[in-house]
Amino acid sequence: MPTTVFTIANQKGGVGKTTTAVNLAAALAEQKIHTLLIDLDPQANATSAVGIEKHQGRSLYGPLHGEGSIFEMITPTAYEHLALIPAEEDLAAAEIELAQTENYLMKLRGVLQPVRDSGGYRAIIIDCPPALGLLSMNSLAAAEHLFITLQCEYMALEGLGQILRNVDRLKSANVNPELNLGGVIMTMFDARTNLAKQVVDEVKQHLPDKIFKTVIPRTVRLSEAPSFGKPILNYDPHGPGTIAYRNLAAEVIERFKLKG
Description:
By secondary structure, this protein is of the alpha/beta class. The protein is built from twelve helices and eight strands. An eight-stranded mixed sheet has the order 3-4-2-5-1-6-7-8, with helices on both faces. Helix 1 (17-30) crosses helix 12 and helix 6 (107-118) runs parallel beside helix 7 (134-142). Strand 6 (145-151), helix 8 (160-172) and strand 7 (180-189) form a beta-alpha-beta unit. The model has no long low-confidence stretch (mean pLDDT 93). The chain has one domain (4-255): Rossmann fold (3-Layer(aba) Sandwich), CATH 3.40.50.300.
């Protein structure tokens, strides 16, 4: 079956982007879907959230510069069907260095192609830095589907237009004409507040066919899990965060036909 590449992006930090990348990847893997999680954020939060230590020379920094193979960077995790390409601080330098190269928006797409050709993974999930810099733009150029995480808080929609404009630019410039908005994932939902419900309703009005039905709740356990190096499915197997990410994974599997 073909490999599908998803990128999870938002120029704002603290919107549940990495939490979603890690836990959606884990939930897909739990469904026996071979999944590769790529940490493109120099802060390496997705790397530590699956219990992997940062190591110099284990990220995509080298392959993006034409040094080494992407396959050498793939690291097994403690979870069956889930592999990781870790991040490291050197990726921050790539933001500057890539701008000085030819076809700088297409570097990641070229690096990923051998993995796609190998057919070893059904899904690749890319966790981007919280900024629309060159690494994030490379991930948009390499992916078929963009997932946007939006927190259920005031001004959540403010940055949505900026990301969508960048998608349109990449498509119109023929950098990645296949890229589409795969879906909007509402995060940090607090059922006790009217504001959270209003934000979800507003997104439903703007993008009725793109918003996922599953809303990710704000829970202490979801916040704690990364510090223990575990996805929420393993840290709190029966909690509301786990239920939510399993439901989200089921929607993703159905929407993008990841099984069968």
